[in-house]
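Weekly puzzle thread! Below is a chain. First person to post its structure in token form gets bragging rights.
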Amino acid sequence: MDRSPPALLAALALAAAPFAALPTASAAQPADAVVVIVRVPTPWYAPKRLVVSRMRDTIPDYERLPGLLYKAYSFERTSGDFGGLYHWRSREAALAWFSPAWFERVRTERGVEGSVRLFDAPVAVDNRVGGRADVTETAAVGTLVEIPVPAGVSRAQLVDAFEKALPTYRSVPGLLRKQFTLSDQGTFGGVYLWKDEASARAWFDAAWQARVRQTYGRDAKIEWFDTPILLPVADRMPATAATRLTAP
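Winning reply:
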């Protein structure tokens, strides 16, 4: 297997076989956009339904946040931690919200430490306006994929490969939106939002895993999130109301 930088980039750009074209609604991506993954341990005594109800109560607050483009309220599958998958216009806007005061508020109100991870998101695709699923569809799920950046591959080369891969991701059945990501820890990948788990499983099948392993010599790390409430924010999308999917 040729693992030279040009070969790896070509494999990234051709990450999947093409599908039949679907209508899309991609929007321009701010140059310094970031994705933030937030996790806070869920209290043992709080049922998921109650946490979702409290999430819904906060929607007006998040609709007014400067620089927030999108939020998928989330529960991380393995731990049950609640939080969100955020898409911000800039790192500055994200850090203004996730300030020392935010961490102190979580400690004071929840008695636990909140986890906040930032990823640069130089390229994004929306296959539905606002990344929203129809209310008649099953519950959306989110996935975070991370793969170590191969030696000798630059950020500019990765971004170019992301852009070349856009036609593939505009045609993936069940994919609502994706932010291509780069981390400060030397990984690349993406934050995906799917209309349901079946769509995600169909994409991340054994052949996909084998292709990643053969191309990069490493397994991809995939984290799964239930996302019961999807919130496209007013300064980006004309439809501002949150879409509540199937109750957990």
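Puzzle host: Confirmed. Bonus trivia for everyone else. The helical segments are 5-13, 48-57, 59-63, 91-97, 100-110, 155-169, 197-203, 206-216.
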